[in-house]
Amino acid sequence: MLRRLYFGIALLGLCLSYQRAWGAGIAWSHSLKSALIKARSEHRLVMLDIYTDWCYWCKRLDSDVYPQSVVVQAARQVIPVKLNAETTKEGRAAAERYEVTGYPTVLFLDGQGQVVGRIGGYEPAPNFAADVDHIVAEYRQLPGLESYVRSHPNDGAAALRLLHIYVEAGRLSAVEPLIARIRRVDPSGSKNLLAEALLLGGSAYIHAGNVSRAAADFKEAAQKTRIPDMQAEAHMYLAMLYAAQNQLTPATTQLKAVLAIRGCSAQMHQAAQQMLSQIQAAQLQTH
Q1: Which of the listed residues 63, 170, 213, 269 has the most CB atoms within 10 Å of its CB?
Q2: Residue 271: what pLDDT?
Q3: How crowded is residue 286: how many other Cβ atoms within 10 Å of its Cβ?
Q4: Which of 123, 150, 181 is where one domain is finished?
Q5: In the chain, count of helices (H) and strands (E)?
């Protein structure tokens, strides 16, 4: 009996130390409808985890990330909801509405159900918590920034900050009007605002599947900037678009353009050289 008592005390101590290390856990809801009502009344974001039973990285989030205290603490700022994209009606509807194509996908929604941020895929706990903090902070700043941009149409830097937020949130309909505003402020690209806006716009169009529009933005970005790494980034994006369509010759041209840019970072040159070597190897195999 004493042995069992000692074992019980040791087990209790282990459980208490586990609880201190991992926290009490995230209090997940399984009703998006109820969470959105709560979000509207409390002026908070919903953190919606859309997952499937077969998804390996979804399980890794559950086992390695969500229990950690840094993530539990960050999640207290939001209303956490978990929905299975295949086995629940609400989960299937959410996956369709938000055009979820990969799992896990974690969306941050305002009270109207509009996406204001997202985490696509698995991230280690510190990164995940930092992203939650960042999205919540931007959401709190968003009304003031939107109001400022409306009343200061010539502040291109503020418009660019707002564009960053919209692109991260996947708000494609808001992207082009902001790029147009930045274009009016920096028509020649001499302020380095337009090129960055075009890079952001191109990345948003890639996510939306509009490859031709993305390519147009990247081509213009490469022309409008004289910052070596920004120019290289535009050419790298174009190379990846061409390679994805098996257009290896124009992809090679873009990568050689990166290698020819003076003042470009070693990391950018290395990435271009590595991709170029892979394309050349693929071309040899086809001959």
Answers
A1: 170
A2: 92
A3: 7
A4: 123
A5: 13, 4
Nearest Cα neighbor of 45 from 140, 158, 181 is 140
Among the three residues 72, 93, 123, which one is the final residue of a domain in this structure? 123
Please give the Cα distance from 237 to 207 (Å, whole number): 13
Domain tally, the chain: 2
Amino acid found at 200: L
Q: Would residue 179 count as lying in a domain?
A: no
The yes-or-no verdict on residue 5 having pLDDT over 70 is: no
pLDDT of residue 16: 34
Cα distance between residue 137 and residue 129, in whole Å:
12
CA gap 40, 28 in Å, rounded: 18
- On average, the pLDDT of the chain sits at 87
C-alpha distances out from residue 82 to 26, 49, 86, Å: 11, 5, 12
Q: Is residue 108 part of a domain?
A: yes
What pLDDT score was predicted for residue 196?
A: 94
Q: Is residue 196 part of a domain?
A: no
Domain harbouring 252, CATH code: 1.20.58
